[in-house]
Amino acid sequence: MELLILQKIILIMQYASFSGFLRTLFYIMAFYYIFKFLARLFLPLLVKKVVEKAGENFQKQQQNAQDNSWKKTPNNDEVIYKSTNTKNPRETKKVGDYVDYEEIE
Q1: CA 64 – CA 58 distance, rounded (Å)
Q2: What is the rounded CA–CA span in Å between residue 86 and residue 95?
Q3: Secondary structure of the chain in the HEC alphabet?
Q4: Which tens digits make up the pLDDT trace of 19-74?
Q5: Which residues lie below 8 Å from residue 73, measured CB to CB, with a gap of 6+?
Q6: Rounded CA gap, 105 and 91, in Å?
Q7: Do 74 and 80 touch, CB atoms closer than 8 A?
Q8: Sign of torsion, CA 18 23 28 30?
Q9: Could you state, in order of their start, the residue ranges of all structural domains in the chain?
Q10: What is the value of pTM for the model shown?
Q11: Whole-angstrom Cα distance, residue 35 to residue 42?
């Protein structure tokens, strides 16, 4: 069993060569530089499209929010002010007494 595995490893090592390694290294470097070049060309265009699309979506949301706020007002030209209850201001919670410490010399 071990002899069979050793023979397979030797067979694989025979096919591996220095020129094959250089060719693989060349392909990896070529792919890297081609990808880098194409990214410099197309990435700014892609980012510009994404920003424009986000701006359009923001404008649509703002327009929808303004349209909805105008639709909520009554049709009989009454202005309704919603004010907080100013007669009974909200009390703050009292957690404990405030103690003022004085420095002793």
Answers
A1: 10
A2: 24
A3: CHHHHHHHHHHHHHHCCHHHHHHHHHHHHHHHHHHHHHHHHHHHHHHHHHHHHHHHHHHHHHHHHHHHHHHCCCCCCCCCCCCCCCCCCCCCCCCCCCCCCCCCC
A4: 778 888 999 999 999 999 999 999 999 999 999 999 999 999 998 888 777 665 55
A5: 79, 80
A6: 39
A7: yes
A8: positive
A9: 2-71
A10: 0.41
A11: 10
Amino acid at 34: I
State how far the Cα of 80 lies from the Cα of 75, in Å rounded to an integer. 12
Distances from the Cα of 3 to the Cα of 9, 43, 66, angstroms? 10, 53, 80
Tokens found for residue 101: 């410490």
86 token code pair: 């100013």
Place of tokens 């030209």: 77
